[in-house]
């Protein structure tokens, strides 16, 4: 119980410091409705948000509804997103997902975790983002690569899989911060706690981090020596 309490207190300290460091932290994908959000998040898997925003600026002009994506020519859609990683697979997922949305949900993006994760190419991470930012429903914590890396470095979890990491974080992070926690981790991961060479000397969390290069020999994100 004592360890759980101390971990919860430390998680709260971490959030407080990051909120001060990144007061305007929010989702960086561009979208104007739930369908655009869903598709942008699907495209963002293993691809930068900056690249996705560049592609969707034209994509959302060309395809303005679930029906338009559902009826798109597969090869043409793939070409439209060809600068995105795994564009062939993603084009197929988007087309199949929009066909389901049209036939089963009357063209509207569903609003439950179970319905969303039944869609082609939509996992829990994508569903969480859509629920949080499209439907104002917060059921969990979005675990992307930044959250995965930094939460392990900070000793908030020792798990490897996003689902298990999410479970651990939901026990430590106050529910009112579940949504913002992800954005704070992403901003911190981009600015300071980078994958290969984190700037520990400049980090606002350095004294709370058991992976700090200033005091420790092992990166808990990878369990490898610095």
UniProtKB/TrEMBL annotation:
Note accompanying the cofactor annotation: Binds 1 [4Fe-4S] cluster.
Q: Which residues form the HhH-GPD domain?
A: 43-191
Per UniProt, [4Fe-4S] cluster binds at: 193, 200, 203, 209
Q: Any keyword Glycoprotein?
A: no
Alphabetically ordered keywords of this record: 4Fe-4S, DNA damage, DNA repair, DNA-binding, Endonuclease, Glycosidase, Hydrolase, Iron, Iron-sulfur, Lyase, Metal-binding, Nuclease
- Its family? Belongs to the Nth/MutY family.
Any idea what this protein is called? Answer: Endonuclease III
> Which species is listed as the source?
Halocatena salina
Q: What is this protein's gene name?
A: nth
